[in-house]
TrEMBL record:
Originating organism: Flavobacterium phragmitis
Gene Ontology MF term list: DNA binding; DNA-binding transcription factor activity; kinase activity
Database matches in SMART domains: cNMP, HTH_CRP
Protein's UniProt name: cAMP-binding domain of CRP or a regulatory subunit of cAMP-dependent protein kinases
Lineage, highest ranks first: Bacteria, Pseudomonadati, Bacteroidota, Flavobacteriia, Flavobacteriales
Pfam family, one: HTH_Crp_2
Domain Cyclic nucleotide-binding: 15-116
C-alpha cells in the first residue's frame, strides 16, 4: 500500500517470519507499522477451548495491526504467519512522521481502515442473522473484491481453506463443507480438483 522505497526512507526494516511464527501477541502494546512484502498473515483469537477465530487474513502489499497503533491500545488479537513471510516494520514514531509529511498516504490509510471496518460490520450482521450458505458466499464475494483473488478460466479461485472459511464465519468446518457442496449444486460455486471457484 505504501511504496517500499518510502517506508525504507523513513527507517523501515525487512524481517522474515517462518510459518506459524508470531508477529505480535494479543495484549501487547504496538510499536510498529507492519506491511507485507510476501507471504500471508492472519490475525486471530482463541477461546477457552482453544478454538481459533480469525479476525482477518492479509496478503502481499497489505498492512495490518494499525488501529491499536493509532489508539495506543493493546492488540486485541494475535498475528501469526500462515506461511513463510517477509514484512516491513516501521517504528511508530517514524510512521507518524511519514503520515504527517505525506497527507496523500494518510488518506490511503484512512480508506484502508474504512474498508476493513465496513467488512467487519457486514460480516457481523451475516454471522448473527444468516444461514451458513449465505455467510460462506458473502465471505467469498468479499474475498474476490478485497483480497484480489485471481480470475482463471473456471472463475475466481478462492484461496481460503475450508478451515479459514469456518474461522472467518464462525462455522464448523463440517458445516462449511456442506454449505460449499450445496452452493455447488445451486450453481453458485464450482469445485474442481478440490479447489473452489466462484
Amino acid at each position: 500500500m505504501i511504496a517500499v522505497e518510502l517506508l525504507e526512507k523513513y527507517g523501515a526494516i525487512k524481517k522474515s517470519f517462518q510459518k506459524n511464527d508470531s508477529i505480535f501477541e494479543e495484549g501487547n502494546l504496538p510499536t510498529y507499522y507492519y506491511q507485507i512484502i510476501s507471504g500471508e498473515i492472519k490475525m486471530c483469537n482463541y477461546n477457552d477451548d482453544g478454538r481459533e477465530f480469525i479476525q482477518g487474513i492479509f496478503y502481499k502489499e497489505q498492512s495490518f495491526g494499525e488501529p491499536p497503533l493509532f489508539l495506543n491500545q493493546k492488540y486485541p488479537a494475535n498475528s501469526i504467519a500462515v506461511e513463510d513471510s517477509q514484512i516491513l516494520l516501521l517504528p511508530k514514531s517514524s510512521f507518524t512522521k511519514l503520515l504527517e509529511e505525506n497527507p496523500v498516504i494518510s488518506i490511503k490509510i484512512i480508506e484502508n481502515l474504512a474498508q476493513r471496518l465496513y467488512y467487519k460490520s457486514v460480516m457481523a450482521a451475516e454471522i448473527s442473522t444468516h444461514e451458513p450458505e449465505h455467510r460462506v458466499l458473502k465471505l467469498i464475494d468479499h474475498g474476490i473484491a478485497y483480497f484480489n483473488f485471481q480470475k482463471e478460466t473456471n472463475g475466481y479461485l478462492i484461496n481460503f481453506t475450508r478451515q479459514q472459511i469456518g474461522d472467518l464465519t464462525g462455522l464448523r468446518v463440517e458445516t462449511v463443507i456442506r454449505a460449499i457442496k450445496a452452493l455447488e449444486k445451486k450453481g453458485k460455486l464450482k469445485i474442481i480438483n478440490r479447489k473452489v471457484y466462484r
